[in-house]
Design goal:
It is built from 17 helices and 14 strands. The chain is an alpha/beta fold.
Length: 403
């Protein structure tokens, strides 16, 4: 029997579909007997619980539920006390449920595979299960294997607490529960350390690395391949691997092979139904209404003023066509080290006369606000008015979340 664990907090009731999609991909690619252990809190609805049971039954597999809000109330209260920043973080309290696996999963279970819910298991999970842990507490894939530079990405590495080559991604782990159960105090120490260092904002992953980075067995990259780093590679194709859609990498656009892979599994789950389609349509309507309102607001902002654009040189031809840029409208190329200074100088000279369209992704807005310029008055995020064909991007992950 293979044991697999998921942990999540489902505030909106819409997150369970991601776990369900990962479960289905797991079942589709193995003939082994699997027991899925789901650690959840009171946010798991009866409807979603029934769908998990139905999904497991369709593949003659097992699923068990553990309401940690009931079973581990004291531990959860301590987690929230130690790390109050969770309330304002992109990481939910569900990320810390993995520290409760050792408490709720039956003691006869000696090892377990932990999986995040933004994953497609596109291989037989037996490959991972059959790896011998010996005296290793866990096995995981180092971030560096995915082309991530830990020394530039993770503060706990930058400050020398964990070596770059040892820092691992906690989205896929093979856990040695016999050892983990003996390390409860170590984990608590790690949580207290991260709590005392709020700059370590990868929370549960930083805790695990602080505790076990030098003791973890390094897995091959095939067991946790980050999708966001694959898309830019020429000739990439889907293979028998575990794909991790971290950082909201799941999209609706079907011209991407990894979007199609996730959608091909999701569409087989009980979460893909007429209600999901209805919510998707409602999401598109909301985007449409939001764009119309943005255009109305822009008309008021532009009253009596001309436009100016801050954009990369490679995008200028497309922007001239899309925005019908006139000869009397200013363009500041976002090119070279002095580009920001040129923008500031131009904005100071044109204060009150022009509205500046910022057409650069991830633009550091604080540069303008610290200089006294106001968003929505002196400048706007011009990317909001673009669609994919003009070089912008519709965040379809938000639509998937709402389904």
């Amino acid at each position: 029997m293979i044991h697999v664990c998921f942990c999540f907090h489902d505030k909106t009731g819409r997150y369970s579909k991601f776990t369900g999609t990962t479960m289905l991909s797991l079942f589709e690619n193995t003939s082994a007997d699997v027991t899925v252990h789901i650690l959840h809190d009171n946010t798991l609805t009866q409807d979603n619980r029934d769908k998990f049971i139905y999904l497991a039954g369709q593949y003659n597999q097992r699923v068990k539920f553990y309401n940690v809000e009931d079973l581990c109330a004291n531990e959860l209260a301590e987690f929230k006390r130690l790390i109050p920043d969770l309330r304002n973080s992109w990481v939910t309290v569900g990320g810390f449920f993995k520290f409760l696996i050792l408490k709720v999963v039956p003691t006869e279970t000696e090892k377990i595979i932990y999986l995040d819910s933004d994953i497609v298991v596109n291989l037989d999970i037996k490959e991972l299960w059959q790896i011998r842990l010996g005296e290793y507490p866990l096995a995981a894939v180092p971030e560096a294997l995915n082309g991530v530079d830990p020394y530039r990405t993770f503060p706990i590495v930058i400050e020398g607490r964990v070596k770059p080559e040892d820092y691992f991604n906690s989205g896929v782990m093979l856990l040695n529960l016999n050892i983990f159960r003996r390390e409860e105090l170590t984990l608590l120490k790690g949580m207290k350390f991260v709590a005392a260092n709020p700059q370590y904002h990868f929370f549960d992953q930083d805790v695990l690395n602080y505790c076990f980075s030098t003791a973890a067995l390094k897995l091959p990259i095939k067991f946790n391949l980050l999708v966001r780093d694959l898309r830019a590679r020429p000739g990439v194709r889907v293979e028998r691997k575990i794909y991790h859609y971290a950082a909201a990498s799941i999209r609706l656009e079907r011209d991407d092979i990894f979007n199609r892979l996730w959608l091909s599994y999701f569409m087989k789950t009980p979460w893909f139904d007429e209600e999901a389609i209805g919510r998707l349509y409602a999401g598109f309507r909301q985007v449409h209404v939001g764009l119309k309102q943005s255009l109305v607001n822009l008309s008021a902002i532009l009253s009596g003023r001309t436009r100016a654009f801050f954009a990369a040189p490679k995008d200028l031809d497309g922007l001239r066509q899309f925005f019908s840029i006139r000869d009397d409208e200013k363009i500041i190329p976002a090119d070279g080290q002095d580009a920001f200074q040129k923008l500031l100088d131009t904005m100071r000279k044109a204060r009150g006369k022009r509205v500046f369209f910022i057409m650069v992704p991830y633009f550091p807005v604080q540069i303008l606000t610290e200089a006294g310029f106001l968003p929505g008055k002196d400048f706007v995020n011009g990317l909001e008015f673009l669609f994919d064909v003009q070089g912008g991007s519709l965040n379809s992950y938000e639509l998937i979340k709402a389904m």
